[in-house]
Amino acid sequence: MASIDVTETKDTLQVRSHVQYNTPEHISPQNVHTSPLEQFHIWFNEARNAGVREPDSMSLSTATSSGIPSSRMVLFKQLDKRGFVFYTNYTSRKSKELDENPNAALLFFWREMSRQVRILGRVEKVSKEESEVYFQSRPVGSQLGALASKQSTVIGENDLQERLQNLETLHGIEPGTKQGKLPLPDFWGGFRVIPSEMEFWLGKPSRLHDRVRYLRIEGSSDDEPQWTIDRLSP
């Protein structure tokens, strides 16, 4: 892929070119699944099979109660009939913002396939039982990291390593082996984004992209949502 053309001065950095997309596929309301969750399932598996690097990586955008936004990359962990699940520290910035304003936006960008999926919806915590099952499926090193990290807080240079060593001692875990089992912390667990809108984007030449949007029909249930499907201007 060619590098973009950039012009720089003392005070500015200006991008003068961009990558042209030329995907052979075509999407429209006529050829997508009637359910956006099923359509996501199809696209996610195609991304995996196409060798997309980290197809489970997604941007999560949250906002405070006053509307100040923030975004970060997180890992998608589960799709069920209600929505998209990710896990995090419940005392982190993202979690505090979701407590204040339980709405979020997700964005998947699969560069290798010139595809994006955009998701907007309200957010709920998953059950403690769901969080427990997932936590115990993680490598012990990741469990230790969840226990040790006071996510989003200021930390000293060596504090985290000291916490990890103390936790290994406390739980009888041999350094380097990472064998053992740790309890689920009270401050850690999952969130589920329940979509009210989803958009599937396919890159096309001259920025004339294919865009198909699903809007949930008002009054339809979370477990069996109904959708209107439209084509959007690029």
Instruction: Please identify the structural class as seen in this structure.
Output: alpha+beta
Radius of gyration: 21 Å
The whole-number mean of residue pLDDT values reads: 92
Give the percentage of residues in beta strands.
25-35%
CATH superfamily of the domain at 6-127 and 191-231: Electron Transport, Fmn-binding Protein, Chain A
Q: What does the model show?
A:
By secondary structure, the protein is α+β, with helices and mostly antiparallel strands. It has a domain at 6-127 and 191-231: Electron Transport, Fmn-binding Protein, Chain A (Pnp Oxidase, Chain A), CATH 2.30.110. The chain has 5 helices and 11 strands. Strand 3 and strand 4 form a beta hairpin. Helix 4 (140-148) packs across helix 5 (159-170). The radius of gyration is 21 Å and the shape is globular. Residues 188-234 form the Pyridoxine 5'-phosphate oxidase dimerisation C-terminal domain. It is an enzyme of class 1 (oxidoreductase). Residues 46-157 form the Pyridoxamine 5'-phosphate oxidase N-terminal domain.
In short:
Residues 46-157 form the Pyridoxamine 5'-phosphate oxidase N-terminal domain. The chain has 234 residues and is an alpha+beta fold.
Features:
234 residues; alpha+beta; Pnp Oxidase, Chain A; 9-stranded antiparallel beta sheet
Task: Set out the fold topology.
Layout: E1 6-8, E2 13-15, H1 36-49, E3 57-63, E4 69-75, E5 78-79, E6 84-89, H2 93-100, E7 103-110, E8 115-125, H3 128-137, H4 140-148, H5 159-170, E9 188-202, E10 210-216, E11 227-231
Antiparallel strand pairs: 1-2, 3-4, 3-7, 5-6, 6-9, 7-8, 8-9, 9-10, 10-11
